[in-house]
Write a structure and sequence with these properties.
With about 300 residues, this protein is mostly helical. The protein has ten helices and five strands. It has two domains: about 15-260, P1 Nuclease (Orthogonal Bundle), CATH 1.10.575.10; about 275-309. The strands form two sheets. Strands 4-3-5 form a three-stranded mixed sheet. It has a two-stranded parallel sheet with strand order 1-2. The longest helix is centred in the last third of the chain and has 33 residues, at about 275-309. The chain starts with 13 loop residues before the first helix and ends with a helix. One of its GO terms (molecular function) is hydrolase activity, acting on ester bonds.
Length: about 300
Amino acid sequence: MLFYFITSSFCWSPQMLAIAFEIGMKPFSDEYRNRMLNTFRVSGDDFERAAEGIQWLYNVEKPPFNIPSFNHWHFDYFSYNPEQLEITENSYTDNLYYNLGQTQAHLFAADSTKPWPFSFNLKHFLTSVCDAHSIFHASELFSSEFPKGDNHGKKFMISYNGKTKSILDFWEEGCGDFTQLNWNDVNDTANKIMKEFPTNPYNQTEISWSSVMKETREITKKFGYSDLSNNQKLTENYVEKCKEISRQQIAKAGYALQISLKRIAINQYQLPPLSIKGRKTETFAWSLLALLLPIVIFVFSRTHFRNQK
């Protein structure tokens, strides 16, 4: 079955998220994948594939859910201030770095035993690992043109192929490298990226997210902003470098998931059977309705005909 992804903004495209997920799941069995999918389903998600869990945090911000509460979790508020301006530093602590660490701690400790909180933490963690590797997510530019910050590249506009968009959106789309992919394409692309970047840079059992985000900041400064000016037209050299770095960051996010998921046990959750007490309550409710319905109809009809006289 061919399945095309819905375009999203302020994040890696759904295609890129799914590719990172497939790289992350390479060492795991079909049973582990099925347990993850079942966990999402038991908690109320109508997913066809476990990979949809990595996209959930973005999808809930769009129709029909329209929940805008999670956007601040996608970004870390580290200031990039190359002009050494006097600025008011953002003091948010409820950010990407904090929530990634907290979510990981609970998943590793296995202290969320109910399916819904465990599922929520897992979906949050999967996405946050990708956010930590996403250019412009780990810092915010302050300059004379953006004295209050460029909102992680959302206000920094560029031009390419006759179209104007934010520099953040351009990178979140993989610089145009990942469009109209179906699920077979996702798997093939994941395999190609692993061949291009075959070495897992994370050889420890627990990843230092502060180090990951520090490296993401350096890449953002060196290659993301580069020598660009606001509203500048991108060169082909810049676009090709953007595509290469996007593939590199997807690979690193996938490898990070490989290491982290090894420490996350997923139980075989099952839908709880309806209790006898629940059945009795439901039966009583329907019985009561059956008794009261004729009385309601009688009262309504008498009132209706009386008003017609």
